[in-house]
Specification:
The chain is of the alpha+beta class. Helices cover about 20% and strands about 40% of the residues. It is elongated.
Length: about 750
Amino acid sequence: MKHNLFCFMLFLFLETLSFPQIVFSQQQDSTQVGTRPKLGLVLSGGGAKGFAHVGALKVFEEAGLHFDYIGGTSIGSIIGGLYAVGYSPEMMNNMIRSQNWEQMLTDRIPRRYIPIEERYNSERFIATFPVAQKKIQLRSAFYKGHLINLLLARLTNQVYHVNDFNNLPIPFLCVTTDLETGEAIVQENGILHQRIKASMSIPGYFEPMKIDDKVLVDGGLANNFPVDEIRQKGADIIVGITLKSDLYKGEQLTSAMPILDQILSLTIKDEAETKPCDIYIQPELRDYNMMSFNDYDSLFAIGERAARAIYPELKKLADSLNAIEPYDNVRKRTTPLDSIYISVIQYSGLKRVSRSFVEGTLQIMPRSYVTINELEEGLMRLYGCGFFSDVDYHFIPDYNGAILAINLVEQAVAILGAGIHYDTDYHVALLLNGTFKNLLSKGSRLFIDLSLGENPLVSASFISDKGKKLGFGVKFTGFGLKFNQYDKKIIDNSFKANQYKLDAFFQATNKDTRRLRIGSQFEFIDFTSLITPVENDKYKPYVNFFVNYFSDRLNHTCFSTQGSTFEVTGRFIVPIIRKKNKEGANYENAIVVRANFMQNIPITRRNTLKIGFNMGITIGNGIPPYHHQFMLGGQSTLNYFDSFVPFVGMRFIEKTGNQMTVGNLAWQYRASRNLYVTLKIDVGYIENSFSKVLKDPKVYIGTGLTLGYDSFIGPLQLTLMGSNSNKKMLGFINLGYWF
């Protein structure tokens, strides 16, 4: 009787402790007493707020907790998966700090991986629409998540041979949502980085993942806190962290981020009641949202602070578990593979694009050691070439290395694009574009542009690019352009030019940054005076033979901070019909050469020095037609005429001549993430003859101050400028990408 009373009193004492499952699980029978209970960790989703998980993990390790199972959803699957593989909180902290999250989350791959033709074409549109089955379709999401996928593949490549997540250093599972049924799908095997990526694919932001004939999205929609799943794995005690924030009020739901946050919070029930944990942590995150990726330091600290607030409880749990069965194994830390032996390369998804094109772009050889950097460089080139909407890879264990399996999703045959632009010189224009891939031959591109506005333009170009091998192309351009002619500082005349050009050329490109073209151009042009109708110069035909070399190494089109551009063009211009100009001289054969260069020199993280020059010469005594003379003035980078040269402080096409040299110097300061201030100075001359240049050249000096903002529809630039050719200050406005 005394013995039974003693056991009963002991039972009541254990039940009154704040962590009743620590020593004995209620499900244990008497034969299991003394066996170490299994400890599980559950991490919820919440976007960037999940960085708080890392701070909490740091405290867990300090307390001495060793987890036997980990489950996570969305960002919880990323942090939990990396911890299960073997990353320490410090390693994850460093990894998170080292990423450019804005670039990562918007799939903005570095420009050096985008071919020159695609580079120009991809930087002009506000919206694009794929065409499939002869219908215009809306994209299923803003972004593919290609860069996130590459990062996850790199961070988990050391366990490429593990398909059963129970065989990871810590058994792991994550949750996805079947978009067709709304069912929660628990992922416990497969390719780890793909399952994690599917678990964090926020609907509408990232495209769904297609895995095992299912369309999968963020697991938070169906099960944001997989406590039950970890219990079913065998966990007796569970530590859980949720990232739930207080719900927004109606007047606060006015932008995308609060709305996405609200949807996420509504999917998370009150976990403390519906999915009880033995230890439950909810960091205070009301000042952050799911896209606060640049607030990692604050989020780390918040997670650490929330866990440290219950450190005595965590320490007591760890000590009691280790007292039952000491955890002697030192947790092994991991690092990604830096190289791997590739025995075979397997491609899937190729239909319209040739395998030889993919192999030439990837530049990875089987039966050799390949660094992960080389592999990622090749995959970036494949993604950037524009023929694929998705590029993914994984390794398959092989007896003497690994098989590299590359899955490619080909881009739609046709993509429609739209853009809008305004600037002081060309005024408002609406761009409609059609881009067609592999339409006439494998590896071919067809671009069709229609620019609607005061100065309309239509163009169509077909390019068959074979990389270093000789490719070819043809291009048609037609436009109308209104501009003024100046006599000193006064408008002397106004013209409308109509020009139609047909180019045929051979070209070779190298490393997506350099291009050489050799070809000929047939053109018609007329000038009509809008003030003096008798001064009309109707259509005149010309044949031009040209050589063009172009190099573009800029890191951004607008507000670049690194890299350079260099272009040189030589033209031999032959008038088919000899006509005299208004001074009575005949247009003769002429050779015109132009070169321009710009180099960014980073001074500090926020300051960039830009230096450049433009030089143009006309060789021989021949008089080139007006539109092949050099035209100085304005700030437009859009060249209807190939000979246009911007000059700060001058009006659009204010000066013309046959000999020209301009030097540029600018200082660009990044005041905030998207706000720039630029001070620019231009110095140069433009004359009709070398003799004038040698005897008494007129040197022009212009200065300007530009306030620029990198918006989602392109750059917004406001410039105030002046020069010694104008007494009053001039203004210039640009809104949107140039096209």
